[in-house]
## 1
Amino acid sequence: MISIHDPVHGTIEVTPAEIKLIDSRPFQRLRHVKQLGFSELAFPGATHSRYAHSLGTMHMGTRMVERALAAIDLPVDERARLRQTLRLALLFHDLGHPPLSHVSERVMPKLGDLRLGPFADDPARQATHEDYTVKLVLDSEITELIERLLGDAGVTAARVASLVLGRPPPGDEQAFVVAGHDLTTVLHQIVSSELDADRMDYLRRDAYYCGVSYGNFDHQWLTSNLTALAHDGHYVLGLQHKGLWAFENFLLSRLHMFLAVYYHHTSTCFDHLLGRYYEAGEYTLPADSEAYLERDDIHLISALRASKSPWAQLIVRRRPYRLLVETHDFGEGPKDTELDARLTSAGIDFFRLRSKGVLSKYFKRRDEVAPLLVIEPEVGRTSRIEDYTPLYRRFAEAVAVSRVFCLPEQLEQARRLLAG
Amino acid sequence: MISIHDPVHGTIEVTPAEIKLIDSRPFQRLRHVKQLGFSELAFPGATHSRYAHSLGTMHMGTRMVERALAAIDLPVDERARLRQTLRLALLFHDLGHPPLSHVSERVMPKLGDLRLGPFADDPARQATHEDYTVKLVLDSEITELIERLLGDAGVTAARVASLVLGRPPPGDEQAFVVAGHDLTTVLHQIVSSELDADRMDYLRRDAYYCGVSYGNFDHQWLTSNLTALAHDGHYVLGLQHKGLWAFENFLLSRLHMFLAVYYHHTSTCFDHLLGRYYEAGEYTLPADSEAYLERDDIHLISALRASKSPWAQLIVRRRPYRLLVETHDFGEGPKDTELDARLTSAGIDFFRLRSKGVLSKYFKRRDEVAPLLVIEPEVGRTSRIEDYTPLYRRFAEAVAVSRVFCLPEQLEQARRLLAG
Amino acid sequence: MISIHDPVHGTIEVTPAEIKLIDSRPFQRLRHVKQLGFSELAFPGATHSRYAHSLGTMHMGTRMVERALAAIDLPVDERARLRQTLRLALLFHDLGHPPLSHVSERVMPKLGDLRLGPFADDPARQATHEDYTVKLVLDSEITELIERLLGDAGVTAARVASLVLGRPPPGDEQAFVVAGHDLTTVLHQIVSSELDADRMDYLRRDAYYCGVSYGNFDHQWLTSNLTALAHDGHYVLGLQHKGLWAFENFLLSRLHMFLAVYYHHTSTCFDHLLGRYYEAGEYTLPADSEAYLERDDIHLISALRASKSPWAQLIVRRRPYRLLVETHDFGEGPKDTELDARLTSAGIDFFRLRSKGVLSKYFKRRDEVAPLLVIEPEVGRTSRIEDYTPLYRRFAEAVAVSRVFCLPEQLEQARRLLAG
Amino acid sequence: MISIHDPVHGTIEVTPAEIKLIDSRPFQRLRHVKQLGFSELAFPGATHSRYAHSLGTMHMGTRMVERALAAIDLPVDERARLRQTLRLALLFHDLGHPPLSHVSERVMPKLGDLRLGPFADDPARQATHEDYTVKLVLDSEITELIERLLGDAGVTAARVASLVLGRPPPGDEQAFVVAGHDLTTVLHQIVSSELDADRMDYLRRDAYYCGVSYGNFDHQWLTSNLTALAHDGHYVLGLQHKGLWAFENFLLSRLHMFLAVYYHHTSTCFDHLLGRYYEAGEYTLPADSEAYLERDDIHLISALRASKSPWAQLIVRRRPYRLLVETHDFGEGPKDTELDARLTSAGIDFFRLRSKGVLSKYFKRRDEVAPLLVIEPEVGRTSRIEDYTPLYRRFAEAVAVSRVFCLPEQLEQARRLLAG
């Protein structure tokens, strides 16, 4: 085992085979993709990369899966295979992230251009960063490394990619059915769900680097109280009921990180400016793996610096539009057309942004998502989390922040207009 | 200045005069009154005392008052007097706490017995720990020490006591009116309100010692965004709007500390056992200051060890009743008389406990409490926090936990009864 | 597994059998024995108990032993037996600690009175807290609980006691020889050595509760780099060379905890006063297990409060002698008889205390202690730590603090005498 | 005041005038200069920038100066002027740092080219990053901003630059002599000395981001115990003797950060590769302010990516030489010419690096550095720290790490050669 220092988890341990995968070019590229993009402008400490986040997600998810599967009787080598496949899915889950911001997904090509075969659903839609993750797992030096280093242990690139997507590997549908237990869902829930390793890492990591306390939650207690339960023929994530307050705290940690950090007016404004820059088509993302690997934050920032686009120059010279108005609601949406009309008629150069989040999807999208079960062993009862306690109904509503930004030179004029 | 190491605040600084007050017997007694009483049984780390909490409250409140009054023009010596009086009110706010648990307030005498003169409202009601705090400030070696050490600076025992109570000192009603500014309310809000130094210290301290993360909130950010505002002729606490998420997080920290720690089934059960022990009248609290000072945790535990009371023996031998059922609601209250009847008819020895908390009183008790104001300097607007954002309406409801405990020997029988 | 919240380790997990042992009266007694005794007077946060420290030591040592034995091929059930026996030795290592302070060992009876049979070396010498630990493991309700709960797994009270003492169990000398590997030494090193779980817990815990940063060291990195190596026919602890700076930092953490906390003038002074109180023979410790279990901090403090001894009254009323002079040296010892003579002839009531510590015993007591080996896998070399790098020669010397304390009333007079 | 979130200090407060200086292009450039350069390759969390470090240094130094000058009687406005000038010197101390690594100083021009006038000592020597700091303070948009925003308060660019350099401003030698107190030395000691704000920030920050505990020390305690003392006609930094262990711990924190982080073999190796790349003269740093501002990490990395230099390609593709041998000594230096000869004759491509540090310069360079004084107020004694306690003689010696690196392809061959 090789130990890596990590500020969030202390020490992260990786195997010699994993080190070779970590040293691959697609994974090393993540060193130059910042985890929080423009947030660094409001939170000077937030310089962390998706590289460290990916290592942390693998570390966190390993502890989760060990707990979740502890009570299920599995052959030693099969348990090791599932664990190793999951570790790679966790390690690589952000491999396809574009430079700097989720906004960069807008300049991605059609999914069909990525030539993912059965791993693509609709070739006509625009590709996402997740599609690029699948692409790089299935079509880069990583593909061959997985087969060579871990093929004998039953780990394949296709199985890793399928855990990222949450669908069984095409043509290998029983890959995660072991000793009669279908573990496909629970394994995918650890990669991506309301209580996944991705969030377990990023909330703590983002809070740590931003210097805010919103992202703190009792991750150890939460992990200690995880389990997996058979439900409708396949295993899903379960939580011991004494881990309930820790889970509620985790949900609220995420809400506050959204309100205070992810939806911060500075980064939402710069994201908007980047979107405007992209509209001109000056910068696009290639479908080819090798070409895509060159696209990191350094590549994009160099392009912005060299560009004559006024939007690029606003970004490079850090001249954002200024926040004029901010309102909050429960997702019902403000209809402030009157305000917009006044600003327009006064000749104010402004734009309106709206950031909206739902605390928990378990309520309104009950039938779409795999459930999280709460267990009360003393009384032998198991419930879906949204049914367990009435307190959770508070989390069904969305929370939204609406903002109007205007040109700095017009800020005083616009404020007078609003006050008047 | 003398520096004291503190795990929560790092370094706490006190003046030579304050050290003499800290070294007094009434304050040293707090070394032997645990902050969380029986919580230590569920959280082995929670051994901290009200002594350290009181120092921390003084420290925290000092930073709050410096911020809150920063923008108000006050003569240097008057500012120093207010600051020093407040520091003592913060330092002494828990002076009268009884041994081990709030439950011990049940064996306190009538308020009249404390002979507090104009500081007593209704002599016929039972005294509280707050009355004892006033008693010890006004009638112990502390009284004389304050006058001797700080009398020249305009600090009096009566003024300190009045800041604890939140009423101007009898016969000295202008004590906290300076240069035309009535600061009585804002000073008292720092000692006791929804955003007071007491909570700012104990949430962090209790979380620190219990080893849970619920009590984390951005205390520095919150403090940095405090101010004081004139409102209806007197000053009240104000909050810059960019401190809003930190305040919401602080409220939720408190909720989670209640749910996970303060209402933990183990300590609520032991509190109940102690209450039953007290019913026999074997142990009472004296009205006299000197005699009261002997009553600390060591005195009470020694009494419990020596007692033949079956309730005392359950406590001393750590043989609590066992948790049988737990339900949550929004304060509307369960009417589970059917369950109680079944347990009774089956001869189960059980009791029912209910713990209930309100996140924020600013909504339903709007007219009773001094408001917390939110300021938006850019648009020159000030609102009561409950009006500022619709999001806060989530915090108006109470949250309650109801539990049934039964005799350990009957636990299996009772569980079968419920399952059947 | 049952999870326990702990502020230092986050979550500590224990088995149902261990919970029964933890709930025993001898272990619960440790709730009322403070870890740092009188240190709380100088560090108000330091209220933690040996109860939490013992749980933490078990937790820490488990991670150490899993690492240390990872590379040794052992049958699954034998590995489990060694692990469980070690966990109990770690859990119980402080079971026999007397009330409040190590000074209380002075009122312990002769070792012979404890009737430990072959576990006693010299019946004529005074017993120590370690002897009482062995006594309580071998002769209390714990003895029977171990046999009943864990006897089938090969865990016996005698084996647990022997790991505490570091000698094979009498008549069962091969207890820790498995598959030809003699693990007696390495297991004992985890219980007690220069790099043991006791220190790994108490340095961090004491620093955490005192609010000082001296006790921080990279415990995860250190543990990740542990191993066990065959050396002269038995296994001893080994350290990967990249853990070297973490180990050096750990040694220096301990030095600074001694200088700043354990040797603090306040607690050394109170320890001295307690020793003087004991001289009169008013309070002694019984040899019988049941009677000994009643002796905790509450028992001793109640006795001190009730005592007419002037030394007891100085302690109870917190009236220590005052620090007059402090000097540091490298253990060679000051011969300041001239100063003492001057104080004596001036009629000053004073006493002199000297606290001395060695950073590492591996140098001057090389032949007495089991070695710690450093491994450089790349070059296939293994060295004793004292030979590995010349830098460690800095740690061979002792460091000592000498102090003179005098009666508070004579402090000014004594200072003038020294200045004159 | 504007509050900025910072992970190390919690909240950093800056004035509106300072925000304008922070928003200047020279200061914003520091966002793209990593604090630890190549260390990120060994410590994935260490992505922090000199931007955040500079804010933290200003914050830390402000607390230090408030403490140090607290006991000196100064006019309010003069105290404010000194504080503000110092804050800017702290904020800007790293302004001239070259991209990525100190190694980049090798491609700086002659000092004379920077045209610093009386602020340059020897025009013929090569410029350093400190000279560029002075350059940017005296000749960029910052220069004009200081005069415009803070000129009325007596703050000038020349005075700020002179505090960075530690020499009185040319022609304005009494700038820091106030009310007869010469504060030049103590102010400069806070910017740059063995106990300066730079170290107080970077040790904690680097440890925080690397995820190691070496950089922890009791900064609050240390700061609380700071003072300033008149010594040979000017004020120097003083330390209350009870802050001594905290200072010793701080020195050792720094030693361990050197050994474990700053001298890590990975970053020293990449620094060497960068030095080799620079030898060809392909990349140089311009003397002109405007041109220099374009040179940040992004500029240099883009240049390395575009370069055909084999050294640049080793860096970009992360193909370092491999560590073959590492030895430690006390600075006396190994003469391992025999080893080098064997490697050379075997045709091994290798290089040798040596990293050396002194814990404290107060001993051997006693006459060159301004002293740090230790105060014992009780006995009215003041000593230079190197005379105060014999324990400090341990810190006079240097500690060095010597390493040999070789081409990866030859690692096995070289190891066999050494083993044979």
Note: The two ends of chain D are 67 Å apart (CA to CA).
## 2
Amino acid sequence: MQTPNVLIIAPHPDDEVIGCGGTMRRMIETGAKVTVAIVTKGTPLYPASQVRQVRAEARKAAKVLGVHRLDFLDLPVTTLHLMPEAKMNKVFGNLIQRSKPDTVFIPFARDRHEDHRQSFDAALVAMRPDGRGHRVSRIACYETVSETHWTAPGVEACFDPNWYVDITATLDAKLGAMREYKSQLSEAIPARSIEAIEALARFRGSVVGMPAAEAFLVIRDLWAAQDRKGSARRR
Amino acid sequence: MQTPNVLIIAPHPDDEVIGCGGTMRRMIETGAKVTVAIVTKGTPLYPASQVRQVRAEARKAAKVLGVHRLDFLDLPVTTLHLMPEAKMNKVFGNLIQRSKPDTVFIPFARDRHEDHRQSFDAALVAMRPDGRGHRVSRIACYETVSETHWTAPGVEACFDPNWYVDITATLDAKLGAMREYKSQLSEAIPARSIEAIEALARFRGSVVGMPAAEAFLVIRDLWAAQDRKGSARRR
Amino acid sequence: MQTPNVLIIAPHPDDEVIGCGGTMRRMIETGAKVTVAIVTKGTPLYPASQVRQVRAEARKAAKVLGVHRLDFLDLPVTTLHLMPEAKMNKVFGNLIQRSKPDTVFIPFARDRHEDHRQSFDAALVAMRPDGRGHRVSRIACYETVSETHWTAPGVEACFDPNWYVDITATLDAKLGAMREYKSQLSEAIPARSIEAIEALARFRGSVVGMPAAEAFLVIRDLWAAQDRKGSARRR
Amino acid sequence: MQTPNVLIIAPHPDDEVIGCGGTMRRMIETGAKVTVAIVTKGTPLYPASQVRQVRAEARKAAKVLGVHRLDFLDLPVTTLHLMPEAKMNKVFGNLIQRSKPDTVFIPFARDRHEDHRQSFDAALVAMRPDGRGHRVSRIACYETVSETHWTAPGVEACFDPNWYVDITATLDAKLGAMREYKSQLSEAIPARSIEAIEALARFRGSVVGMPAAEAFLVIRDLWAAQDRKGSARRR
Amino acid sequence: MQTPNVLIIAPHPDDEVIGCGGTMRRMIETGAKVTVAIVTKGTPLYPASQVRQVRAEARKAAKVLGVHRLDFLDLPVTTLHLMPEAKMNKVFGNLIQRSKPDTVFIPFARDRHEDHRQSFDAALVAMRPDGRGHRVSRIACYETVSETHWTAPGVEACFDPNWYVDITATLDAKLGAMREYKSQLSEAIPARSIEAIEALARFRGSVVGMPAAEAFLVIRDLWAAQDRKGSARRR
Amino acid sequence: MQTPNVLIIAPHPDDEVIGCGGTMRRMIETGAKVTVAIVTKGTPLYPASQVRQVRAEARKAAKVLGVHRLDFLDLPVTTLHLMPEAKMNKVFGNLIQRSKPDTVFIPFARDRHEDHRQSFDAALVAMRPDGRGHRVSRIACYETVSETHWTAPGVEACFDPNWYVDITATLDAKLGAMREYKSQLSEAIPARSIEAIEALARFRGSVVGMPAAEAFLVIRDLWAAQDRKGSARRR
């Protein structure tokens, strides 16, 4: 099975729902075990009470979607780029070895937020296909409204997806999970609203003839011999 | 004034509405004179009756938006790439010299349809900024649902817009104009539906904090001395 | 099952083996039904006897790999770019509707040979995900020694694969199939030799910790609702 | 008016003149209010006396061009990348909210100097179009001789401008302002000489049929409804 | 010796001087044998008298620079794209086998003129490094004012050079050769004037600390064993 | 002579052999003087004994190839990105001024390891062609198995080489030097094995008709007047 173990790496709480909420739910419904790992902790930039609130919201959202495990990596928000590489890599390496995912969703490498960029880099280092440790079968970037579409045209690579998942049946669950993030939605950023998330799902779906879709950029897909991918009997 | 004379180059009827309907209408409301040029003629690939019908629809759509002039260049559909360059360039060159546009909207260079690609090329040749003939101040590519988002990721440049126009007030007019294209909508292609067009407008708007927007890729913006752009007195 | 129906589009005989021989064989072994479509016919550029010979070789190679169906589209070699788009699209459209593939392998868009470029374009047009006709789940480009690596760095996109298939167990079959193409190998082009093909397989494999691999560029992966992809029960 | 409030962000003194001197002057002459913000302070890498000198030169250059306000952000030179993101973003965010610019010029994202890269990033974060705070209508990158053209071809995006401003009438003022930077010119770097600056202006002009031009890369152009852009009455 | 045999492929007369005039002259002065091949013939698009005139000018320009051989391939202007690939390839293949060049200069692949694009493609096909026939050691694209800088930013690759040749000592010869092209200069296109050519040379030089330079994009550099490149004794 | 003084910049010991071992040896055999500079020191991340061992291996490998000088820059491993730019630039600047190289090999800018990226950046800053100090004639990136081919397709530039050097005669020396790195090979990473290195050399060679080759990306090639490049007498 290609997606029994799924890991979503989210720099900040709510990125996991915005980027993969519908796909996550669909995978869970068909038997996958999903782990969400939130990379950063808001303190001391934000007050502890605010961090507690958003984490409570993250738990509610995870519950709406049926997420099996919610991990907090507790790395420092907005200063990931100031960590020694070796330390950063160790945290992400441990995450991969511990959760042994088949499919991993990570933020887009050129998202406007530096924490997203650092998470992308650290995740790819941790999943180097060097033949040692756990092998990840599929790595894909998700898109985050209010980050991913603010790249600089003509300079930075834009998000140009090559994988579309029909989320028609799970869009409601996605939006429901997002509504749990009251603290994030209350800021009234148009780009991060329920309406924006739905419009994006409708647009992505329309491109490939689906009522609603989430779109991803597959970075690496591995069909190893031992997990017998390409086998008609088991897929 | 930057946009008094506006030209939209549409490979086939309805591309002009899909790509620029809302912006066109907004520009018209504020005084611009808009010309739409349809590049190809459907015959003999399609029956003459069908060509007559879609042209009647094009006229109705133009009327809804208030387009001042609708031109049919009558080049052969799906065989533009078989025309001698010199002949193609002459048709487009004449169009530019005749309509003397300040702003020109053209299809995206990597749209899936070869006619779009050829129209892009011919338009850019016709607007070479060589200091002779009419000077175009702004050239921008529009996006066409069911063509523009079918590029090949990782190989072809994707449409990564750098210009957003708020069309909140003119979205209804755009959709109304599109509804005149009954023959095109009747094919029931999800990517070319009213819903797809609206979802895209909502998504593009959400990226930049607008309820609805059309997005473009500015290819070349010229602030010449003689038209005194950058002048606070006249802009 | 993701790959029960597989289609390989080869501009000229032997491209299918060079690009996908090992993966094809692996898919066949696990139950997939594989069709190979050869796009062009060598005459009149090459003598009819030569065309007969290479087609006989193609049949032998197909037999070695266990290919279920070998199609000859009989389009004119080196003049694909001179065909009207509509005609080209019809041939490729018919191929897709007839073979109803789940996975389609096509040449790389920037291969040095114009026939490869035209085949890529026509294939993508034929597989527009517009919600009508047959839906293809996965489209991927393969690499062809002596074409794909002759792109122009700094100008043209290079082949940068995102999908690796372990062909350790089927490499011998691939090389065996290639050896049937005596007429092609006899030309003694280093880039198109058995040694070159094996070196590439070893290199691609080494990148991802496999003894031998074929690498592809996934252009589009669709997980539609109705084929219930993402389902843990059936994959 | 599109450009009444203009902000130029310069990592180090003289970048503002090299990149935008002629355009700045032209905008000032036609009524724009121009602010220049110098991002870094040379100490302690350079002696305080040298910093005083170059700042005096910056003031003289600003006077030659008629700049209305010259801001020194006093961030540490060559160590911008070591600042916490949140702190960096706050400085740039305050600058935008304080100066409320319509048009902002920033360094090119791939300039060879890390301070330029960091300034680009921080500026784009500060101008996220999230619908809160001040909205910037146009963001454009300028080119800096001796930084911008030292990118790595084949790896890093090069500066490929999409906006040309005729500076024929203001080139003298630009060069005059540059001559005030005696400390910078005295280093005798060919790439940063008066001759190099003029040659670039002549070359850029020649591309678009102007005697002299400055070229920019428009990153984002917003035509919001409330500032009634596209209005023929006011532009 | 790396450049004893040099071939310049020019789609139309004057491209060879604009792109490589200074480098050609420098190479000739140090012993290289230079061939210029003009790809197209102007008739019937242009009158025969005009073709005769520009060819006479081409001969004069070649004489100024000391070119050893001037070839006219006589392919049809503006309709190269309508030739069968095999025919086109044969003409270019013969050219390479006949002139046996070590270094070949070709137009940039994305020049605005279709003839330039076709010449680029045909030249690269003819110089496939397949181990048969003559091996070319270096292939480089030159830039042509009034073609190369009219690419579409954000869509087409721009000319981003990786090779600079100091032409300080031969710039006069280059400009002198260009002045022989009276028929081309008389059209008064700013982008194709003596002034534009000189400004570009000054700008390119300034980037790398030279008074004047020509810039190229190296596409492929081969150090084969048999010509013992990398040998300190002979280079 | 183009390559009498050659410098290879290696972030960690063994990168120099993996990337340039065959070319280095070939250049040495024909008279070049080669310096290898190892950028980082493993302590304190790795125990001192391990650092001593790998440095002993580096010396042995250098001896196998005939390297003239082996430099250890002793910068901190995995924390290069935390050094002030000015300090980093000084170390690399001193290296260039001290070794006065004609040709410099550096890691690829997008290698998966941050130390490689930082080394690339610092090297390019140190070799700015600003007309002051030592001028480097050629800068090229080499590829490192287990780093270079782990870029993210669709987001990061891939390694697309434009320079091939025939290493058929020196491949054995390269592999012999690599075998001295027992501590690195003992980790049993398929991507960093002797087999992987040889497969890559065979593949790169096959592309250009050579039995074995190393491939590079030329970033900048300068033919200055004073070293009379392009001279037939001396090359």
Note: The radius of gyration of chain B is 17 Å.
